[in-house]
Design goal:
The protein has 422 residues and is α/β, with parallel strands linked by helices. Helix content is 36%, strand content 14%. The protein binds pyridoxal-5'-phosphate.
C-alpha cells in the first residue's frame, strides 16, 4: 500500500518543550501553567476579568476526563482526512440533543447569527425587532449587514421580548424578529410564532443562554426559522469559544453551509471556487472534541444548573425579589440564576455589589437596556426594561458550586434586604 502524500499536516510531537514555555509538568505527565502566571493572567490579561482564582466565580466549565480524552485524541489524530471527525460528530450529537434536522458548528453564536441573518437576505434599509434587554451580540450582527435593530420592551416576569410590543414595532421593512431566551427564561413562542405566520416574518431564536430550556416539551432553539447557540466558556455547555446554527429548513441550511465555507457550495467540482462572498466562522476539530463530551454530558450538566437554581430559590424565599421564570408550559435550563429586587424596596445595588466584592464573590449586573448605550437609535419607549435592569443581578452558578458557597452568596443579599426593610 502506498502512503498518501499530503499538501500539509501539523507537526505534533511528544517532546518536552514545556520547560522553555514556563509550564509545569506534573508526575502524571499533565501540564499546567504555574500558579503565579495564572494569577497574573487573571489580573492583567486584556481578555480576563481582573479577578483572582480564589474567588467564587460566576461561572466556570465542568471539565472531566471525557473532555480531556477526546481533545487529546483530536490533538494526536484529528488531522488530514480526520480533521472534521469531531466537528461532524459534535453537529450530529447536537442535532439529536435538540431534535432538529440541521446543525452547523461555528466559532461563536455571534457568527451563527450573522450568517443566518445574511442567509435570510437581511440588508441595508431592513429592520430586525428584538428586546431592549439583550447582550450586544444579539444586535451587533444586524448592524454588520447594514440593517437597523429595533429595540422593544420586555415582559416584567420573563424578562423576554413582549410579543405585543414586537407586533406594534412591525413595519414594511421588518425582516425578522429575534427571540432571545434570557438567562434560561423562555420567550412566549406560541405568540411569537403566531406573529411570524400572520405577518410572514421569520422568528429567530437566540438560544445562547437556553441550553436545557423547553417550551411545551420542545427545546429552545428548535422552534424558530433558525436557532443559534453559544459555547463560550461561561455557558452550560462549552468549547471555550464556539457556537451552533440550527434549522429544520433545508434551503436555509444549504445557504448557510455555503456561506460558512467562504461561499464554496457543496458539490462544487472546482477546487477553491467561491460562488459568492461567504464567511469564516468555523469551529476547530479540537474545540469540537470538547463539545462532543459536553453534549454527551448535557443532561447531567443541565440537571446540576437546575439544582443550583432551586437551592438559591429555596434559600431566598420570603425575600422581596423575583427569580427566573418557570411557568407550567416551560422548563428553565437555569443557565444563570438571577434576582430582581421588587419595585419600591429601598435597595442600593452598588452597595450589594460592593459587599459581594468584599466577600470574594463574583456577581454580574443584569444586562443594560441596549437603548441606553447610545449605540442605537431609540425608536420605542421601553419603560419595563429601564425599570428592571437596575434592580437585577446574576448569581454564581458553576457546576461545582457547593452548598456552603451558595450560603456565602446568599448572605449579602439577605443582609442587604433586611437592612432595607429596617
Ligand atoms: C443571548 C446571547 N446571544 C449571543 C451571545 C454571543 O455568543 P458568542 O460569544 O458565542 O458569540 C451571547 C453570549 O454571551 C448571549 O448571551
Amino acid at each position: 500500500m502506498t502512503t498518501r502524500v499530503r499538501a500539509s499536516k501539523p507537526f505534533i510531537t511528544n517532546a518536552d518543550s514545556t520547560k522553555s514555555a514556563g509550564l509545569n509538568r506534573q508526575g502524571s505527565g499533565e501540564v499546567s501553567l504555574p500558579q503565579k502566571m495564572l494569577e497574573n493572567a487573571y489580573d492583567s490579561s486584556p481578555r480576563g476579568n481582573g479577578l483572582r482564582t480564589a474567588r467564587i466565580r460566576y461561572t466556570k466549565p465542568s471539565i472531566t476526563s471525557a473532555e480531556v480524552n477526546y481533545v487529546m485524541d483530536a490533538a494526536r489524530h484529528g488531522w488530514g482526512e480526520r480533521c472534521y471527525e469531531y466537528i461532524d460528530l459534535f453537529e450530529q450529537l447536537f442535532r439529536a440533543h435538540l431534535g432538529v434536522k440541521h446543525a452547523i458548528a461555528t466559532s461563536s453564536c455571534t457568527g451563527a447569527l450573522h450568517m443566518g441573518l445574511a442567509a435570510l437576505g437581511v440588508g441595508p434599509g431592513d429592520e430586525v425587532v428584538l428586546a431592549d434587554i439583550n447582550w450586544i451580540a444579539s444586535a451587533a450582527p444586524i448592524t454588520y449587514l447594514g440593517a437597523t435593530p429595533v429595540l422593544v420592551d420586555i415582559l416584567p416576569d420573563t424578562w423576554c421580548l413582549d410579543p405585543k410590543k414586537a407586533e406594534a414595532a412591525i413595519t414594511p421593512r421588518t425582516k425578522a424578529i429575534i427571540a432571545t431566551h434570557l438567562y434560561g427564561n423562555l420567550c412566549d413562542m406560541d405568540r411569537l410564532r403566531a406573529l411570524g405566520h400572520q405577518y410572514g416574518i421569520p422568528i429567530i431564536e437566540d438560544a445562547a443562554e437556553a441550553i436545557g430550556s423547553l417550551w411545551r416539551g420542545k427545546r429552545a432553539g428548535s422552534m424558530g426559522t433558525f436557532g443559534t447557540f453559544s459555547f463560550h466558556g461561561t455557558k452550560t455547555l462549552t468549547t471555550g469559544e464556539g457556537g451552533m446554527f440550527v434549522t429544520n429548513d433545508d434551503a436555509l441550511y444549504e445557504k448557510v453551509v455555503t456561506f460558512s465555507n467562504h461561499g464554496r457550495a457543496r458539490g462544487e467540482a472546482r477546487q477553491f471556487w467561491p460562488a459568492e462572498i461567504g464567511f469564516k466562522y468555523k469551529l476547530s476539530n479540537l474545540q469540537a472534541a470538547i463539545g462532543c463530551a459536553q453534549v454527551e454530558r448535557a443532561e447531567e450538566l443541565i440537571a446540576r444548573k437546575r439544582e443550583i437554581f432551586f437551592s438559591y430559590k429555596q434559600r431566598l424565599s420570603g425575600l422581596p425579589l423575583i427569580m427566573n421564570d418557570e411557568r407550567p408550559e416551560t422548563v428553565n435550563g437555569c443557565w444563570m440564576p438571577t434576582v430582581v429586587i421588587e419595585k419600591g424596596v429601598p435597595f442600593n445595588r452598588a452597595l450589594l455589589l460592593e459587599s459581594f466584592k468584599r466577600a470574594g464573590i463574583d456577581s454580574r449586573v443584569f444586562f443594560w437596556p441596549l437603548s441606553q448605550t447610545g449605540l442605537f437609535r431609540k425608536i420605542h419607549h421601553t419603560p419595563v426594561s429601564c425599570d428592571i435592569s437596575p434592580r437585577g443581578i446574576n448569581l454564581p452558578s458553576y457546576h461545582d458550586l457547593t452548598g456552603e458557597e451558595i450560603n456565602r452568596v446568599v448572605n449579602p443579599i439577605v443582609r442587604c434586604l433586611v437592612r432595607a426593610a429596617a
